[in-house]
Amino acid sequence: MVLEKYKQKRNFQSTPEPSGDVTVAAERAKKARPEQGLFFCVQKHLASQLHYDFRLEHKGVLLSWAVPKGPSLDPKTKRLAMHVEDHPIEYGTFEGVIPSGYGAGIVMLWDQGTWTPQAEDVDAALKKGDLKFTLDGYKLKGSWVLVRTGGRYGSGDARSWLLIKHRDDWAGEVDITEFAPRSVKSDGDFEDILAADKPDVWQSNRPAQGGEAGAMLAKIIERAAALKADRSRSTGIVGPASEASRQARRAPAPKARKARGGGAPRALKKEVAQPKPSGGSKKKPTAPKKTAAKRRTT
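Above: the chain sequence. Below: its structure as tokens.
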């Protein structure tokens, strides 16, 4: 059954995540034209651990891999990518707070765009464990490959893959996760997303407790609370921000690791801090359509 594992893991009475419409999936699968580009996204997810969810549209759903350290533009760096359950196409534009249950944490839409498979038969490439493709997103572009490290596709021992950047004009040693850390949907960071919701939602039961992720979340909650408090005081009034808000903005963002220096891709050097899709007048990539049953996430 389509999206069966996805639905089994979630209580849609308590999460703002889309439940997924199998009819929408079937209709989108019929209309898909892989040679013209399919939807892809990367969602930065602070849960029990910070990771990046890499998603490719295929047959009306989003094939999904969790990438603990995020994508790398350096062809020498092979990123572990754990294959997880398919997600509904509506999930592709989700950004917000999951207050409890499976995946509790903050989700940021870190990148989105289109992907084009380099193989005629995607299912055969997945079964073989060697899926080559081209990305055209705001941050990730050029040629990539997902390589399975063992087991048969769909089996329990076949979850481990590697996400690797091929050598081209969009390859380089710059750490793209540090170079462009913010949302392509709201241009905000985790604290902005949380401040738009409820910064006190995890004071008693945080999804990340202890360790690096717990420390990161504690700082984000503090900043979000300061931002929201300032907004509450200044609703409808244009004036200077409060000292708490200024301090929250000035404080350096928590980093999970040190950024790699130098080596920016040749093509990326021509871009601004948040790279825009190449092609000048090219239209913005088509996002998944919203359904009437979908909840508001922002």
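The longest strand covers residues 105-117.
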